[in-house]
Amino acid sequence: MHNNFFQFDFELPNQEESDKLIAMLAEQGFDGFVEEEDLLIAFIPELQFNQEAFEQVLEKFSILSYTKSDIENINWNKKWETEFEPVLVDHFVAIRAHFHQPIKNVQHEIIITPKMSFGTGHHATTYLVMKHMESLEFKDKAVFDFGTGTGILAILAEKLGAADVFAIDYDEWSITNTEENIEQNNCHHIEVALMDTIPPGKQYDVILANINLNVITASLDSIAAIAHAGTEAIFSGFLSSDEAIMVTAIQKAGFQHVLTTGKGDWISIRAKKI
């Protein structure tokens, strides 16, 4: 597991700049973000940091002031736990930590152990995927969760009635955290695996892919290979400015564009395999 992280504190003029920076940094391996007023705090495992790629991202912003510092896992986890606030997706689902009081008047409640993984429910893309999931049928379905993060989407899929869920992620920390969260939510139909490519063979009824533009577009052939005619897919992790690229790419891979939803500058696309 990663022992140390780099923390970057960026001063940003507006939400649009923050959204764009998050999208670009996520593609470089940054996997934890905290947004405060006029400030974006981003985290990356020290071993994954690439200075040259980082500087190429910075070149896309005219003025970008930031500070860099080193942190240890244990310090970050403590910070995350103390700052973690429950997430509500209307009356559909609530995500909270074990130390929060139960949340009433929601259909589903997910309890997670807050750690530094991109997918605690706070980010707009996770919210958008869950909103799509509200209108999909999961009863007795086979679900594939590509880039599971903290396992939230996989857990929600089981709570919605999925018969079996296969969740993968390339990050060992994410897998460990997902397994903890699965146990905490008393889920029994989720299999988790440490891998960064989609294994061929089985086909799924629902595919969830909340990662980023580059990974999704590079994986669309593999995603199509595990889909049958009628498979529902939800793609997220990219900006509204990327919609045309994504729609073209998914159509080329044999998916029909069904619906695009947005939150701020972020979008999520629902599609169906033809």
Structure in words:
The protein has eight helices and 14 strands. It is an alpha/beta fold and 274 residues long. The radius of gyration is 18 Å and the shape is globular. The model has no long low-confidence stretch (mean pLDDT 90).
Question: What is the strand and helix layout of this fold?
Answer:
Blueprint: E1 4-11, H1 15-26, E2 32-36, E3 39-45, H2 51-58, E4 65-72, H3 73-83, E5 87-89, E6 93-97, E7 108-112, H4 124-134, E8 142-146, H5 152-159, E9 164-169, H6 172-184, E10 190-194, E11 204-210, H7 213-225, E12 227-239, H8 243-252, E13 255-263, E14 266-273
What's this model, at a glance?
With 274 residues, the protein is an alpha/beta fold. It is built from 8 helices and 14 strands.
Mean pLDDT: 90
* Helix content, binned percent: 25-40%
Element pattern in H and E: EHEEHEHEEEHEHEHEEHEHEE
In terms of DSSP E residues, the strand content is 25-35%
How large, in whole angstroms, is the Cα Rg? 18 Å
SS-based structural class?
alpha/beta
Overall shape: it is globular
Main-sheet strand order equals 10-9-8-11-12-14-13
> Could you tell me the number of beta strands?
14
Cα-to-Cα separation, first versus last residue: 40 Å
Low-confidence stretches: none
Q: Let me know the largest β-sheet.
A: 7 strands, mixed
- Number of H- or I-type helical stretches: 8
What would the keywords be for this entry?
single chain, 274 residues, 7-stranded mixed β-sheet, 8 helices, 14 strands, 31% helix
